[in-house]
Design a protein that fits this description.
128 residues; alpha+beta; Bit1; two-stranded parallel sheet; two-stranded antiparallel ribbon; 5 helices; 41% helix; globular
């Protein structure tokens, strides 16, 4: 889910980065290559489907906090620090010197059993 007050570019960047984070940790979430009738290969895509939901910044934080306390869920987040950093070293240093309570989350990705995820995000609209 993403903070719906962000511009389209920030949301696109956050969701792409979170997708990469999920695929790195949970490679089985991405299916294998697919071949079309002409024999051309297409890259694998997530088999579970992906919904980009929207809420305000407070809702993103609330859902992240709840998800972090649930067993069996993988949670990745994109903070304002991550978006503003020009290098991974800068990101690590910025995050390492900031209390979690002071972080602003732009987006969060939650992967796990559908019923657990639905309990957290149920009722949220698709991002527009």
């Amino acid at each position: 889910m993403a903070d719906q007050s962000l511009g389209a570019g920030l949301v696109a960047n956050a969701t792409a980065c979170l997708g990469a984070a999920v695929a790195a940790v949970l490679p089985g979430v991405v299916g294998g290559e697919v071949v079309d009738a002409d024999g051309q290969t297409h890259a694998g895509l997530p088999w579970s489907g992906v919904s980009i939901l929207g809420g305000d910044a407070a809702k993103v934080r609330e859902i992240r906090t709840k998800a972090m306390s649930k067993e069996g869920l993988f949670v990745a987040d994109m903070s304002k620090h991550a978006q503003a950093s020009r290098s991974y070293e800068e990101y690590r240093a910025g995050l390492g010197s900031t209390d979690e309570s002071e972080l602003s989350y732009y987006a969060v990705s939650i992967v796990g059993p559908r019923n657990k995820v639905d309990k957290l995000v149920g009722g949220l609209p698709l991002l527009r």
